[in-house]
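step 4 of 6: structure.
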Amino acid sequence: MTSEISIRPLAPGDRSAWRSLWRDYLAFYETDLPDEIYELTFARYTDPARNDMLGWIAWQGGDAVGLVHVIVHAHGWKVAPVTYLQDLFTTPAARGKGVARALIETVYADADVAGRGAVYWLTQTDNTAARALYDRVAIATDFMKYSRS
Amino acid sequence: MTSEISIRPLAPGDRSAWRSLWRDYLAFYETDLPDEIYELTFARYTDPARNDMLGWIAWQGGDAVGLVHVIVHAHGWKVAPVTYLQDLFTTPAARGKGVARALIETVYADADVAGRGAVYWLTQTDNTAARALYDRVAIATDFMKYSRS
Amino acid sequence: MTSEISIRPLAPGDRSAWRSLWRDYLAFYETDLPDEIYELTFARYTDPARNDMLGWIAWQGGDAVGLVHVIVHAHGWKVAPVTYLQDLFTTPAARGKGVARALIETVYADADVAGRGAVYWLTQTDNTAARALYDRVAIATDFMKYSRS
Amino acid sequence: MTSEISIRPLAPGDRSAWRSLWRDYLAFYETDLPDEIYELTFARYTDPARNDMLGWIAWQGGDAVGLVHVIVHAHGWKVAPVTYLQDLFTTPAARGKGVARALIETVYADADVAGRGAVYWLTQTDNTAARALYDRVAIATDFMKYSRS
């Protein structure tokens, strides 16, 4: 018997749950970031007046089981801005239960309401586990990323 | 004998030169956009108070020979915003003369001055001509783009 | 017999009607502005993705009879941004018919929907005609403006 | 013998000094604000990537003796944004030593560097102590503020 998953916008009270999820997510990319970034990033994602940085957290019972972060930015080819899904994470224990898909669908729904329905993200080509999901909810393009350094 | 290349920020007087360059660029992607988008996009790139949409145009003698467009957006992992080089174009006649490289370096220099030196862009994996240049001025990552539709 | 007043957001097709209204408004303040500002300001107020500069125009039959411009900005004392009603104008022929009041109420309604219901504006203390209306729809404060120059 | 006044941009380490100054400033306006606003406002004024909310704090020896907060916003009559000096405070013990004037001049200098030199603020008409200073560094206009509520 499992409790239902509920997804809601990040709020100030989520600070410690969020830190833990984001740390695990960053560890997947062999990254950690200084405390100042945790503080700054959390303040940005939870500032109710910002509409360029948005986040949601998934709860199952009393456990925080996933998060998604979105960056909204202008686009030279479009009237409306676009929605860049920057971070997506589900805890190992909660995988295979549709949490990641539900988080992506939360982003899609919010993007539609806000009139910036063009959503995209980047993923490593060899991340087959993630791509198995992405191929069901989005389209793999032939665009790759170049980075100055 | 050729005249020197000069690169400067897009300005209201560049309207018709810019339209022609951007149209040719979009044609490379088998795209065209309605007139309203040309109007809106040009107004945005030439609004001196916007710092999230920036453009430069390259001139050689009396000819407009290239353009670059940049989108600046927030980043959840960084204090400073990042610089997304969205569009880069050189006219066929002006290729092989370093115009594209000079445009990228203009973006790099501007990004450094503005304190958002993390510059990136997306390109099609099979665009070998472009990638020959990109491999000299940037790093090819293993990130690919997924798009909602 | 008069036709009804309709108020709608400024759109690209309003360019010439808007220019004429705004010029007359500026003339009241013994100001005119160069053409570049007209171009830039109109482009800003009609960019559908901007949410910090908004405008509405009032039509009666085929005549443009009024306009209102709003600037949205952050506020250090509040979670939400605030709504600064910067410009309000009714053509002389249309005065006394509730156009100005309807424009203010349009701003109020939009501000409420957007969750930034704190609306304010500045007016000259001796503008008794305008103040007769303002005293009915808002509160005269004892704050005055200082300007660097 | 007194130590020199130094003014610098608000930074994360100023949190408790800032809270105390801002609380005293708000008390002058017979206002207090909930803790969430203190948190949110401090996070906004100290986010290095925001350019629409800026603050400075004045130190004398080990004492925080003043603060100034600035809101930057678009202006329909101008190419560049304008600089709204929203809050200005000096501790009672430090008055008469030029702290407030130095804070205003800091704002002027920053505004000039950023190309948005039009600085303004609002003050109560009967605040004679403040106005004695303001009349020396700025121009009293005949504009008064109306507020929706």
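step 5 of 6: annotate
 - The first helix of chain B runs from residue 15 to 28.
 - The CA atoms of residues 79 and 121 of chain B lie 20 Å apart.
step 6 of 6: archive
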